[in-house]
Amino acid sequence: MSKLAKIFFFFAFLLFYSHQVLAQVEFNTEKNRDVKQIKATGFMDYPPFGYIPDTYYPDSYQSIFKPIIDEYAKNVNFLVDYSVNLPYPTLVRNVRGGNIDIIMGIYHDTQIYDGLEYIFPALLNNPIVVVMLPNRINEVKSTDDLKKLKGAMNSHEHLSDFVANQLNNFNIVKIDNSYDLYKKLYNKDVDYVLASEYNARIELAQLGLRNNLSFSKSPLWNIPLFLGVSKASVYRNQIKNGLQKIVNDPKTREIIKKNLADYISQVEQRSVGIVAPDFSK
Description:
Helix content: 40-55%
Distance between the termini: 106 Å
Order of helices and strands: HEEEHEHEEHEHEHEHEEHH
Strand content: 15-25%
Radius of gyration: 26 Å
Low-confidence stretches: 4-8, 13-32
Number of strands: 11
Shape: globular
């Protein structure tokens, strides 16, 4: 091979190799560019729908909806940051303003969520039940029976506007914590407690009261819970279309139900041996 030919092939090789390296760099740059940051939020003090297991570590935020969001984000190259360090009404406003992209667990036709994009259908219902002393639970056959009695509810309970308006027909006091709430029930200061069935199972287990109280056989209201998307999010359409496919997949509901059952079971197992409070006056 002539000296001129060798020089030609040498430069051709350099050109080919440089092109391959450049292509690899461009590919990696594009891949990095595709990873997009989004924010999500939800209830802060309402297990199993949203809660912070350790208040010293807000990053420990959990929700039975969170695995669905995390899996979706991973599949489409989103990196999710969970916003949890503000009061809930402020977080909802931030969703409306586009500072947060996704909110987990919202009620339809409820003013606080006006202006948000609902992802239909609902992922889960939140049943509101009557909790009473076992020897009195059979006194209640309908909501009309409750209107003759005095009730109580945790002030941190999250309700749709429809249910909240219905409660105006009942004699109900709001109590700021579960201990005092169920103390009033035991001391017969109130006849019943209204509560989310799933949240009540968790709260009662942690108080050592789960086997000491009875739930109504049927919920008074069964409130659908939806995922929501900010209409001001720069990724609104992409997130909406992606989540729409997920919530329409029957497997998603099975995952949510399993997350729910597993979490309640774990709480109940951890709570075995907790001695019920002495509520005597």
